[in-house]
Amino acid sequence: MNRKFKITFVSILFVLLAFTILILFFKNNCKADNENLYGVYLGMNPEEIEDRDLAQTMVIDAQYYTEDEISALKDKGHNVYTYLNLGSIESFRDYYSDYKDITLGIYENWEDEQWVDVSSAKWQEFISSKADELLAKGVDGFFVDNCDVYYQYPTEEIFTGVSDMLEDLKAKGGYVLINGGDAFVTEYYNRNQSLDNVLDGVNQESVYTCIYWDDDSFGINTLEDREYFSDYLNMVMDDDKDAYALEYATDSEIEAEAMEYDSDMGYITYVSHSLELK
Could you say which of 9, 37, 76, 168 has the lowest number of CB atoms within 10 Å? Predict the structure, then answer.
C-alpha cells in the first residue's frame, strides 16, 4: 500500500472514529439531561419525596402539600406544577359528594373515578377557586388532567366548558400543561389556529411505551399509536408550545429506547416504573 494513501486512510478512520465518539457523547449527555429535566410524582407524599433525586420540573398533587413544603422545593431550584383534575373527579377527594350529581359516567380502568359535566357552572367555579388556592401555596403552574372528557362526550357544551376553564387557568398567570387531551386540543387549534389562550405545553402518556390494562404491565406501543401521538405532539410544538412525554417501563432496555426516541423527537420525558407514579 502506498505510504501516502495509508496515512490518508488512517487519518480518515481517525476522523470517523472521533466523530462517532462525539455523537455518542452528545447523545448520552442529552439523554442524561432529559432524565433530569422532568418528573411526575403524583403517587408520592411530602415525606417520600424528600429522599428522591428530583427533576428540575416536577409534578405533584399540591392538595396534599403545605405552603412551606412547596416553598422548600422551590428553594432548591425546582419548578413545581400541581395536578388539577379538570374533567373527572375521584371518589377519595373530600369534595366528591358535593359534585356527584354532575358526574357523567365511570372512567374506564379507574373505577373510583367519574367523568364530570364540565359545562356545569358550579364545577367551573370550583376548579377556578381550587386553582387560586393552589397558586396561593406557591405552585408555578398546573398539570391539567382529563380534558379527554371532550373525547368521551364530544358535544359543543363540553367543548365550551373545557375551553372556558383552560382560558381561566391561563389568565391566572401560571404555566398550563395539559395531560393528553388530543381530541380537544386538535379541535381547539383547528377552530382558532393557535393554542395561546389555553395552554403552554402538552404532556402525552405512552408515546413509545404502552400499558396493558389487563395486568397493569408495560410494553412497547404499536407503530400506529406511536406515530399518532408523535404527530399530536409535533402539532403542539409547531405552535411553539412545549411537548412532554410520560412513559411507563420496568424493562431497562425499553426505558432506554423510550428516552432515546422521545429525546430525538424533541420531547421532555419522564419514565415511571409504576402506574402510581412513585
Answer: 76
Contact 166, 198 (CB under 8 A): yes
**Residue spans per domain, the chain:** 39-272
- Distance of CA 9 to CAs 5, 18, 19, 79, Å? 6, 14, 15, 51
Q: What are the cell numbers at 275?
A: 402506574
d(CA 236, CA 223): 20
Classify domain 39-272 by CATH number: 3.20.20.70
- CA distance linking residue 40 with residue 270, whole number of Å: 7
- Stretch 39-68: mean pLDDT, rounded? 94
CA distance 272 to 278: 7
Phi, psi of 151 (to 5 degrees): -65, -40
Residues 178/162, Cβ–Cβ less than 8 Å? no
Residue 8: what pLDDT?
A: 54
**Listed residue (48, 90, 34, 74) closest to 258, CA to CA:** 34
Residues in the chain: 278
Looking at residue 9, its pLDDT comes to: 46
The answer to whether the beta carbons of residues 83 and 59 sit under 8 Å apart is yes
